[in-house]
Amino acid sequence: MSENYTLVEPKEKRKSNHKSIETKPIKIYNTTNTKTEIKRTKINDWSKVAEKCELYKIFTTGQRRLHHDELFGLSLSLMYLEGGKKRILETIAKYPDLYNKEKDKNWGNIIESNKKYSYSPKKCDNFCPFKDSCKHYHNMRNTVVPRNAIYMLSDNIKYIDIDEAFKMLFEELKRRIW
After folding, report:
1. Nearest-angstrom CA–CA distance, 76 and 5
2. 130-170 pLDDT tens trace
3. Are 15 and 35 within 8 A, CB to CB?
4. Closest CA to 53 of 151, 114, 131, 122
5. How many H-runs (helices) and E-runs (strands) does the chain carry?
6. Residue 37 has pLDDT above 70, yes or no
7. What are the helix (H) ranges across 95-161?
8. Given a cut of 50, is residue 1 above it in pLDDT?
9. Backbone angles phi, psi at 19, to 5 degrees
10. Residue whose C-alpha is closest to residue 121's, from 75, 71, 52
11. Are 137 and 146 in contact (CB under 8 A)?
């Protein structure tokens, strides 16, 4: 037995033109889910999430009921944030006048299913009503925690002439290489 498949002997021999044909074992491939656990980003201040994402703010403050597609898109991004599932379920429980239908009680299972199949966060353009007025990145998760952001480490910036910069770069390369 191999790790990728199991060999199974056929139950009966095949016949062709009244002759028995020897059949080979059949390979049955293992199809279990081998995907790893999704990586979650830690959020220290959830109020900053509400500042950056208007839809999340409306959801957590209970200003209105989110449509299924909005809540589904939000849940796909929040499941990649530590405590995101908990926030969704707590908010649904907090506003029973908005989320009291039988289908609203199933969001825990929906999120677990999304995790199981490793769904990616949904693009804001595909579900968010604020997509045109919001400064967002590819999806809500990247808007809240941008991975490619450039951060200024110091306020003390010194500008130099480009010729001087090339000279300094050349000298540094020469020092390290030669």
Report:
1. 33
2. 988 888 778 888 888 766 555 555 667 788 899 999 999 99
3. no
4. 131
5. 7, 4
6. no
7. 107-116, 140-144
8. no
9. -115, 145
10. 75
11. yes
43/16: higher pLDDT: 43
Distances (CA, A) of 48 to 51, 52, 57, 144: 5, 6, 10, 8
CA distances to 83, 100, 104 from 95, in Å: 19, 8, 11
Mean pLDDT computed over 56-79: 92
- The pLDDT value recorded for residue 12 is 62
C-alpha to C-alpha distance for 88 and 52, rounded to whole angstroms: 17
Where residue 18 falls (left for φ over 0; alpha for ψ -120 to 50; beta otherwise) is left
Distance separating alpha carbons of residues 121 and 66, to the nearest angstrom? 17
Percent of the chain with pLDDT strictly greater than 90: 26
Contact 69, 131 (CB under 8 A): no
In angstroms, the CA 121 to CA 77 distance is 5
**SS3 assignment, position 20:** strand
pLDDT tens for each residue of 89-111: 999 999 988 887 777 778 888 98
42 CB-near residues (< 8 Å, 6+ apart): 81, 82
Q: DSSP code of 124?
A: G
